[in-house]
Fold this sequence. Notes:
With 179 residues, this protein is α+β, with helices and mostly antiparallel strands. The protein has two helices and ten strands; from the N terminus they run E-E-E-E-E-E-E-H-E-E-E-H.
Amino acid sequence: MEHPLHLFRFCPRCGSNDFTENDFKSKRCGACGFVLYFNPQSATVALIVNKRNELLVARRAKEPAKGTLDLPGGFADCFETGEEGVAREVLEETGLVVTATKYLFSLPNIYVYSGFEEHTLDLFYLCTVQDDTLPAAHDDVEELQWIPIDKLNAREFGLQSIRKGIEIFMKEYLETNRY
């Protein structure tokens, strides 16, 4: 797999085209000496389970993977923690207020946005919300629904890391009920 640095031809600091490979994960500017490391962006994913052992699932309203199932979440903003980011994304997409978060695991992902491959590190959180009444969809969510955890089908989720996250969550939840 080719590292995404190949897409950068000019130094972001001075604009020079003397911007060459420094090592596998960085480029160096021959004009000003700036070294660019291309690292994944942080993204958050919310696993919200109600009292009936159902998971809150979203349907994507936009590309990538428009129309497929997803979980509430999105990119972390500058200066916020993963916990703050997941709570903000849940509020933006569902209107629900997160009262507690528990970090579960992380997965690498490639999220194509405007034709560009954004490498992300998706942080999965088990979230408790104030009220688990089915909310209205907001932001980039077409609809929301509660699905019984034992009825989830990971293949219906359009993003690779979310599919894998659902598989991990179902295995752990159904086999150990540890969440």
